[in-house]
Amino acid sequence: MRDFTVRPATADDAAAVLALHRKVAAQPGGLARQPEEVTADYVAHALAASADGGVNLVAESVDGALCGELHVERMKVAIFAHVLTDLTVAVDPDWQGRGVGSALFRVLIDTARSMTPPVGRIELWTGAANTGAQRLYERLGFRIEGRMIGRGRLPDGTVDDDIVMGLLLD
Length: 170
What we know:
single chain, GNAT_dom
């Protein structure tokens, strides 16, 4: 039995999502954003995007605390409207390795398969150095589709490539 559940995010989750993302962003390699880049507007955008064809999910522990969040947007250009993109997942460092990320992705994939209009693709980017995330995404069915050389400049000034990954649902 898991000690958390996954459910759709609501506006009432905004403050907890903000705190979660700031905590994860403070960890080396935690998020692409730095803690100061995680703002109330950023969280409001994620919540609004889910209401506009995207998906926003939270993992909530049995005591009611958020231990994870995932959001993804639907592309608005007609030719790409079957694509969910700009995916971000944040798992509280104290909960990592306990199945939270996998559970969020499984609910996302199940949700995407039932959406109208239909979703045929979910895409994401992850840092090349983040091999643990790449393995998780591959276990979930995502495939590496490319590499964007030198796309991310890390806080220490070094650059990292982004790995482009996609999951076809059709």
